[in-house]
């Protein structure tokens, strides 16, 4: 095998790497476009299909000592369940300070339930009455 065979193998390797990079880029774009629906704090009505996931985006600054919780009364577990949360410090939230917290939910089965989120420090009994606490209320319809 001479230098022409080596050059041909290098070209094939470069083509294979380029195709792999293109496939990774396409997968990344499709994943972002087909990700869960995102609702903002100002939206109070959420409609999703059974099995669908969605996120609620709220302004959050972990340094202020407050955190977001699903508050009582809890949503009907046959309709909706909380599946986690994540913070995106790079994305400016609707209020323009801190970062954006995404609270993740999964629609379990058909029905309608209320979802109450509470931004609190102690987050114990009576947390809704503590100074600086605030709540968000949503009506979630799965069907």
TrEMBL record:
<keyword id="KW-0812">Transmembrane</keyword>
<protein>
    <recommendedName>
        <fullName>Proteinase inhibitor I42 chagasin domain-containing protein</fullName>
    </recommendedName>
</protein>
<keyword id="KW-1133">Transmembrane helix</keyword>
<dbReference type="InterPro" id="IPR036331">
    <property type="entry name" value="Chagasin-like_sf"/>
</dbReference>
<feature type="domain" description="Proteinase inhibitor I42 chagasin">
    <location>
        <begin position="48"/>
        <end position="131"/>
    </location>
</feature>
<dbReference type="InterPro" id="IPR018990">
    <property type="entry name" value="Prot_inh_I42_chagasin"/>
</dbReference>
<feature type="transmembrane region" description="Helical">
    <location>
        <begin position="12"/>
        <end position="30"/>
    </location>
</feature>
<keyword id="KW-0789">Thiol protease inhibitor</keyword>
<keyword id="KW-0472">Membrane</keyword>
<dbReference type="GO" id="GO:0004869">
    <property type="term" value="F:cysteine-type endopeptidase inhibitor activity"/>
</dbReference>
<keyword id="KW-0646">Protease inhibitor</keyword>
<dbReference type="Pfam" id="PF09394">
    <property type="entry name" value="Inhibitor_I42"/>
</dbReference>
């Amino acid at each position: 095998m001479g230098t022409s065979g080596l050059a041909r193998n290098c070209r094939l390797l470069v083509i294979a790497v380029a195709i792999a990079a293109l496939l990774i880029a396409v997968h990344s774009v499709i994943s972002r476009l087909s990700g869960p629906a995102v609702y903002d704090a100002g939206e109070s009505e959420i409609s999703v299909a059974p099995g669908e996931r969605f996120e609620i985006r709220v302004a959050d600054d972990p340094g202020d000592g407050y955190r977001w919780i699903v508050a009582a009364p809890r949503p009907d577990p046959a309709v909706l369940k909380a599946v986690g949360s994540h913070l995106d410090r790079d994305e400016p939230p609707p209020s323009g300070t801190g970062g954006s917290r995404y609270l993740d939910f999964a629609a379990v089965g058909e029905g309608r339930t209320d979802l109450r989120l509470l931004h609190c420090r102690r987050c114990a009994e009576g947390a809704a009455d503590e100074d600086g606490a605030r709540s968000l209320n949503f009506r979630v319809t799965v069907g």
